[in-house]
Amino acid sequence: MKLRYGNAAEAGMCESRISKLENLQEQWVERGVAPIMISLIARKGIIVSHKLFVDPDYDKSYGPMKLDTIFQLASISKPVTASAVMLLVEEGKVALELPVQDYIPEFTGENKEKVLVHHLMTHTSGIAEDWIWEMANSGSAHVDMEQCPNNLHPDVYKYLTTGHKAPLNFYPGSEMNYCGYGFLLLTEIIRRVTGQNIHEFATERMFQPLGMNDTYYIVPPEQYARVAKHPPNAPFPRYADYENVIKPMGGSGLCSTVHDMAIFGQTFLNKGSYDGFRLLSKLGVQKMTMNQIPGVSSRLDGEFFKEACWGLGWGISGSKQDYTGTLRSAATFSHTGRGNTLFMVDPENELITLNFQVTMKRVNNRPYHYFEYFNNAALASILD
Questions:
Q1: Are residues 152 and 282 in the same domain?
Q2: Does residue 322 share a domain with residue 221?
Q3: Are β-strands 4-5 and 46-54 bridged in parallel, bridged antiparallel, or unpaired?
Q4: What is the gyration radius of the CA atoms in the chain, in angstroms?
Q5: Range of the structural domain that residue 122 is part of
Q6: How far apart are CA 255 and CA 246, in angstroms?
Q7: Tens-place pLDDT, residues 4-24
Q8: Buried b (16+ CB within 10 A) or exposed e, 252-279
Q9: What are the pLDDT digits (tens) for 90-99?
Q10: Measured on CA atoms in the order 273, 277, 283, 286, is the torsion positive or negative?
C-alpha cells in the first residue's frame, strides 16, 4: 500500500472531527504552545490531514515555512537506526544475541562482555551514560583524535570512544534505563560491518529506495534554510544552532519531514515493504514492534512504569498510560523526540499520526501532553 491523499470518509474517519482537530492545533499555535506545528494523519494508506500551523512572527523571522519543512527529530532517530541494524540482521551480518564486544573489542570493563546487541536496542544495557557525558565534556576523556576515521564526525568519534570504558549502572537486561549512547554503538557496529557510516548506509539502503528524499542524518548545507529553527527561548535552545547540532549520532541527529516519516510508518504497517521495495521481512517488523523485555520496569521522564514494554528501537504502548493516548491499541508503537516531535503507528487501527513542532509551553513541565491530546482526538475520529 502506498500513501495517497484522500478524504476522511475513504479512510473510515469522521471529517468533522478531523476538522475540529485541525482547528485545535491552530488554537495551540495562537496560544503560544508552539510557534510552528506540522501534522499528518493517515489511515489505511490515505492521508486525511496534512497541515502547517505557524505563528506570523515565527514565519517572518525564519520562514516562509512550508509543509515540507525539515525538523530535527532527535530520538525518533532511534527506531530508524534500529531498522538499519535489523536490515543487517536479516542479511546474516549482525546477530542481536552476540556481545557488543564481538563487533567493538574496545568496549571493555566489568560485566561489559554481558552487554549484547539487543540490550542496546531495548535500553537495557546498563551503560552509565551520565559518566560518558561528564568525561567527554570535562576534557577528561583524553581521546586520540588523530585516530578518528575519515567517515566519522570528530565529535561523534570523541563521544563514542569515551564511552568504550564507561562503567555499567546495573547488570545488563535487569532493568530499562533510556540510553542514547547505546544507539551510537549500534551505528558503529553498522560502520565496522559495512564500511559506511549511518548517514551513508541509511541513505543508500533505506531512504532513497523508499522515496524518503528529505530525510538525512547529515543535512546538506543547501537544505539548512528548510530546517525548523528553535528560538533562543525554547526549552531546548541548543537546537537553535542547527548547523552544529545536526550530527549522525544514531540515537539523535536524524532530520526529516512529516511526509517522509509517514512513508517509514506505512512501511511498517505494510509489514516491511513500500511501493515495491522491501526494507524488512514480515518477521523482522514483527520482532521490532513487540515487547522484547517482558517483566522489566523503567523510569522515564519522571514516571515509573512497572512494565517498560519496549521493542527493538520502538516504544511499545502495551498497558502503559503515556503520550500515545487512551484510545490507541496495545499494539501501538511510537517514539518522540526532544524538541518536540511525535511519531505513532497503531497497527490494529491502521493509523499513523505525526506531529512535529517546536514546543514552547508544557503541562506541569511535561513536554508531551499535547501529543496525548492530539492522538486521542485523531483516534476518536475513526468510525469503522
A1: no
A2: yes
A3: parallel
A4: 20
A5: 81-194
A6: 8
A7: 999 999 999 999 999 999 999
A8: bbbbbbbbbbbbbbbbbbbbbbbeeeeb
A9: 999 999 999 9
A10: negative
